[in-house]
Amino acid sequence: MLASASYDRTIRIWSLRTGKCVKFIDYQISQINTMNFTGTGRDLVVGSFQRADLFDINSGFTPKATVQVPKNVTAVGFEKNGRWMYTGGEEGTCRLWEMRSGRMIVVCALSLKTHVLSMAVNTNQTELFVSTACGRSSSGTSA
């Protein structure tokens, strides 16, 4: 599957096999800055202004969970098995959110004091890499 976002504040989920749109999500909450699927492809996180929304793409158009942050969310993603999600953004804080309980709980927060541009999980699933607006890259252990 592939997810695309548009200036009209919509999200489309595409089948890579057929090239057709299989799901349409009307996201009138805010502009969409970033998106990422879980490893299973079942959930999609959308980062926008002051929030990240988690959607089950098979069951509905309403977010199943929302986390609030102070500024734009510019980086989102998941650990491969869906145990935790990460967010980063303009306020300069990287957060890990525990997902197993069905509630989004911050389990770790790292303040970098500069905009977070991107984040990625190492293939070992225990390190998180972060790049920032000041040109620095950092890594930290998540487990």
From TrEMBL:
Q: Which domain of life is it from?
A: Eukaryota
Per its UniProt record, what InterPro entries does this chain match?
MLST8 (IPR037588), Quinoprotein_ADH-like_sf (IPR011047), WD40/YVTN_repeat-like_dom_sf (IPR015943), WD40_rpt (IPR001680)
Q: Where are the WD repeats?
A: 1-24, 73-107
Q: Which GO terms describe its cellular component?
A: cytoplasm; TORC1 complex; TORC2 complex
Please provide the record's keywords in A-Z order.
Answer: Cytoplasm, Repeat, WD repeat
Please verify whether the record's keywords include Repeat: yes
Q: Which PANTHER family match?
A: G BETA-LIKE PROTEIN GBL, TARGET OF RAPAMYCIN COMPLEX SUBUNIT LST8
Q: What exactly does this protein do? A: Subunit of TORC1 and TORC2, which regulate cell growth and survival in response to nutrient and hormonal signals.
What family classification does the UniProt entry report for this protein?
A: Belongs to the WD repeat LST8 family.
Name this polypeptide is given: Target of rapamycin complex subunit lst8
